[in-house]
């Protein structure tokens, strides 16, 4: 008798076939040795009875070998689903060579576009406006931005990130932010430059999310375009667009695929 155990194989190609073959031989050897073993006197090895209501002296049902789910060597030898037992990763050099050109058309993405605790420069809250689009030589002050956006409602805070070239404007009421993004998007100007005004994501970004923006309002990106760019890095769970289609959140099934993207 042997205890069942659970495991995963992260192999591919010939290495996976070799592992499956070796597991089949091991299963056959265990099965044959088990049938040839002499009978065991169960009375000699019987454990003493456990008093009713006792919490000590025995295995928890959760960790009992009979209840523990998982692959045994014999069940592995009968398995026909290779994809469920292996994790295969493919990298196509030709695709990675085209990524810079595609990203350049979308606009350069900074570290703040990737939702990582180590790389984020700010934490957007629900109801915040993210404003960008001014010239490098002219950086608006808090008073400049307040003068424009306070006409839609009272502001609670204004932060200008000079290095990242964007500002975060917080309203007292979130519904004022929703009105403002429709009112000022591609309309408000500073020193002749049209501002890109977008609403912060209505959900909290996780490590599986990638925030993407930077395309022209006259030629917005489509869902199929984003899938063509980001699907090769991993399985995309969903794509969420902003209120004015000015940004998108690409959510992966696996957070490590998001980091690669």
From TrEMBL:
Gene3D superfamilies: 3.30.70.330. Keywords: RNA-binding. Residues 127-202 form the RRM domain. GO terms for molecular function: RNA binding. Pfam families: RRM_1 (PF00076). Residues 27-79 are annotated as: Disordered. Residues 69-79 have a biased composition (Low complexity). InterPro entries: Nucleotide-bd_a/b_plait_sf, RBD_domain_sf, RRM_dom. The keyword Transmembrane does not apply. Transmembrane segments: none annotated. This is RRM domain-containing protein. It comes from Ditylum brightwellii. The lineage of its organism: Eukaryota, Sar, Stramenopiles, Ochrophyta, Bacillariophyta.
């Amino acid at each position: 008798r042997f205890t069942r155990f659970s495991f995963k194989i992260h192999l591919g190609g010939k290495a996976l076939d070799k592992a499956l073959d070796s597991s089949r031989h091991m299963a056959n050897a265990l099965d044959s040795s088990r049938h040839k073993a002499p009978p065991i006197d169960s009375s000699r090895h019987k454990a003493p009875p456990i008093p009713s209501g006792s919490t000590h002296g025995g295995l928890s049902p959760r960790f009992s070998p009979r209840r523990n789910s998982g692959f045994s060597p014999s069940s592995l030898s009968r398995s026909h689903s290779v994809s469920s037992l292996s994790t295969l990763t493919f990298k196509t050099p030709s695709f990675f060579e085209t990524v810079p050109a595609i990203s350049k058309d979308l606009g350069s993405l900074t570290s703040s576009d990737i939702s990582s605790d180590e790389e984020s420069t700010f934490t957007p809250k629900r109801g915040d406006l993210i404003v960008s689009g001014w010239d490098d030589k002219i950086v608006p002050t808090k008073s400049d931005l307040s003068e424009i956006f306070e006409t839609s409602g009272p502001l609670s805070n204004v932060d200008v990130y000079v290095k990242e070239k964007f500002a975060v404007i917080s309203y007292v009421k979130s519904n004022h932010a929703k009105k403002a993004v429709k009112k000022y998007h591609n309309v408000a100007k500073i020193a002749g430059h049209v501002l890109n005004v977008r609403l912060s994501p209505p959900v909290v970004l996780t490590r599986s999310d990638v925030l993407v923006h930077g395309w022209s309002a006259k030629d917005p990106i489509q869902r199929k375009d984003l899938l063509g760019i980001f699907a090769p890095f991993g399985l995309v769970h969903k794509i969420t667009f902003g209120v004015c289609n000015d940004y998108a959140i690409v959510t992966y099934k696996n957070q490590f695929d998001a980091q690669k993207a």
